[in-house]
Amino acid sequence: MSSRFAPRPPRTPVRGGGTAVPGGVPRQAMPSRVRTWQPPFPLDLGLTLGPLRRGPGDPTFRTAPDGSVWRASRTPEGPGTLRVAMRSGTVEAEAWGEGADWLLAQLPTLLGEADDPASFAPRHRLVAASARRRPGLRLVRSGLVLESLIPSVLEQKITVEEAYRAWRLLVRGHGERAPGPHPDLYVMPDPRTWALIPSWEWHRAGVDDKRASTILRAARVARRLEEAALMEPPQARARLELIPGIGPWTSSETVQRTNGAADAVTVGDLHLPGIIGHALADDRDADDEEMLRLLAPYEGHRHRAARLILLTGRTPARRKPKMPRTDIALL
């Protein structure tokens, strides 16, 4: 295994973008840091990092035509941009901003170094086939709680399209341009900025008072919530669920991304029980209880099993009406 972690001189941006950063330094002239890492396992960047993307227009996440992934994050050391690419089995990473060193130090963890799929034993033909076709799937571990918690709260009980739109508007409207050469990346707001967003801006983004209030409560105790990234998943979920408005669905969706929680299966989802039931027992009317029964043989890896099932694309014909769009003016 080899690793390189060193400063890199300024480089020309891929395309446009002369927005300045504090101190008057042009974004494209900011020096970057680089690191290479040889993972001791097959790695598919798209599959591994995909859960961190909140829709095709996510302003914090971009995928380039060459397969590289760009992410903008608010790290404990400040805003940072990370670009990750695979070259002949080697991970090549480059980072910009105050959070560059933190992002590069966390790179192996982000890409599943701590994930342990060795004890995962498929018990169904469909799951075995899906795992065999995707040897490069690792469970991501971002180590950053708020950046996964807030979009998960936005996704509560509305369509994903509405949630993605809200995330885009709030990050672009109240976040900041990401450091580095990418012209379209934004870093999400810091906790204080989330707390200062006026009510009409939440409404303009289609976010009702209940979800906005939950995010505000989380922002006020952001430091304590970020500690959950270092906990075991059950303890992390318990910490998150101390916040009114954060329940099992939201905590599971969060720790899957922040803690690489292989067993944190999502309950309370409108469609997931039917998908799991259809795939494993030809029962598209399965509820949470039946889903958990079907996934019981995968205890310790129930989220991994559910993820592999979802990746097959095998879903039952939709009979329930699609969740209607929400007009918060009527709430």
Automatic annotation (TrEMBL):
Protein's organism: Streptomyces alfalfae
Region (Disordered): 1-37
UniProt protein name: 3-methyladenine DNA glycosylase
Domain of life: Bacteria
The UniProt record lists the keyword Transmembrane: no
Keyword RNA-binding among UniProt keywords: no
Keywords per UniProt: DNA damage, DNA repair
